[in-house]
Amino acid sequence: MSETPSELLKSWIFRQLPDASAEWFCDRLDKLEADPQKQSFDITFGMIPRKLGKDDLQLSADDLAAANAVRDGWNPTGWSIDAAARILILTDISTDNGVSFAKRFKDLHRTADLGELIALYSGLPIYASPEALVEQAALGLRTNIKAEFEAISHRNPFPMEQFEENPWNNMVLKSLFIGVMLEPIQGLDERANPELARILRDYAHERWAADRFVSPELWRCIGPFAKDEYLDDFQKVVDEGNETEKKGVALALASAPASTKKDSLTAQLSQFSAAIQSGELTWTAIADEMFDNSLAITRKMNTEVELTR
Questions:
Q1: Is residue 120 within 8 Å of residue 109, measured between CB atoms?
Q2: pLDDT tens, 132-149?
Q3: HSE toward the beta carbon, residue 245, CA cutoff 13 A
Q4: Mean of the pLDDT values across residues 185-192?
């Protein structure tokens, strides 16, 4: 088994490239190894899509398992071959001094197009000295471009591991605000906190006041703190929500503190108890159901979902 993310990336990329593309990329990697300076790097970084194409990176279940084995939480699902190649050369230069790479990262970000931004952020889990990139990653979440936002937030252990509570909470809230799914965010349960629960409750009330839909995924972050007024909100969903919304509350209740009100709500949602206990009803299943019951526009690495009642 390959022992580093770079070795895995290289093997995945080269097995998929036609001979001419593989020859060009191999030559550029040799040149970068001999001369990793900015001009040589920038030329390669910019030419990669034209020379290698933008096809999906073909990964098997074994490939994904190998990725997770060499770097816990690394999940390159959905990467394109040009993004993977860019991340490979970024990973190689990141082994330099962390401050130096952080400056190179920031310089690239300043002039990057969307494809380059996706590569920059998707590689966050496997760069050396990740702590030097925290501020830039948090700034990246200011975007309203979903593909860029999801490159940071989805299937990426970097936010869970590196963000302090405030930027973490802001990322989760903004995900809901711009219509980005929560389920692909790693660490949602581990990073749940009382302040996030309070913020999300306020957000839910604003949505209800405007007669707007509240994502069933929101209750996942509230469940561990669900008592008193939070359970009143759960009761509202039980009384007025659709089937998917009720499933979300049923799952959230499973992590809620013990109380008489919790027991009452659980009894009202008893039709879901067996599915929860068997593992059939999960947050992944809720996310899948949201897609099945939604009007969705899906783009490569950019998914928009608005549930309809």
A1: yes
A2: 999 999 999 999 999 999
A3: 17
A4: 97
